[in-house]
Specification:
Number of helices: 6
Radius of gyration: 52 Å
CATH class of the largest domain: Alpha Beta
Helix content: 55-70%
CATH superfamily of the largest domain: OmpA-like domain
Shape: rod-shaped
Number of strands: 4
Length: 221
């Protein structure tokens, strides 16, 4: 009979471990306790039977079953809780989510460069006072945009020979380049060019038209 008690106790332990392994995490102690109570009750009945033999009454056996059930419940649930606690310690923590990607900075808005041209007096390459105001504005824009490349194109009216007007247009372009460079514009970004009388913007048949043709244009490349 002693062997029976040992076997029953072994079943309690086995059922406790099995319940811990198979039950849901929230119900494992319940499964272990129920299994331990059932087998503990059986063990209590067997023990009382051995003690009292044929004199054992139903009340005696019932008391043994109750005591065994309580003991089995405590043993089973206790084992399960212990194993479950050890199992929880082995669970690796979930990795933290990766940080959100950094927002790329918006590319700088490139300024639209609009440069006004200037006009000259007849047969002159000197900068007029009204032209200085326009060129100061152009210099401020170009200094904010140091990568800009500018063609400085000189023109004339049709009074005089083509060869003379070619040289005059080149002097006018060079005069504008010198003025802008003195205002802080990188001279290497300015390309002076002379076109003589070849590209009029107004008819040369009137004084007003010829005045418009005596000019220097600033064109960004």
């Amino acid at each position: 009979m002693k062997l029976n008690r040992l076997a029953a106790l072994g079943l309690v332990l086995a059922l406790a471990v099995s319940g811990c392994a198979s039950g849901g995490s929230g119900f494992r102690p319940l499964y272990c306790g129920l299994g331990g109570a059932v087998l503990g009750a059986g063990l209590g009945v067997v023990t009382q039977g051995e003690i009292h033999g044929y004199d054992a009454t139903s009340s005696t056996l019932g008391a043994g079953a109750a005591i065994g059930a309580v003991a089995g419940w405590l043993v089973g649930s206790g084992i399960c809780l212990l194993l479950y606690t050890e199992e929880e310690k082995k669970v690796e923590p979930k990795p933290e989510p990766p940080p959100p990607p950094k927002a790329e900075p918006a590319p700088p808005v490139k300024e639209k460069i609009v440069l006004r041209g200037v006009n000259f007096d007849f047969d002159k390459a000197t900068i007029r006072p009204d032209a200085k105001v326009i060129l100061d504005e152009a210099a401020a824009i170009l200094k904010r945009n140091p990568d800009a490349k500018v063609s400085v194109d000189g023109h004339t009216d049709n009074i005089g020979t083509a060869a003379y007007n070619q040289k005059l247009s080149e002097r006018r372009a060079a005069s504008v380049v010198d003025y802008l460079s003195k205002q802080g514009v990188d001279k290497a970004s300015l390309t002076p060019r002379g076109f003589g009388l070849n590209n009029p913007v107004a008819p040369n048949t009137t004084a007003e038209g010829r005045a418009k043709n005596r000019r220097v244009e600033l064109l960004t490349n």
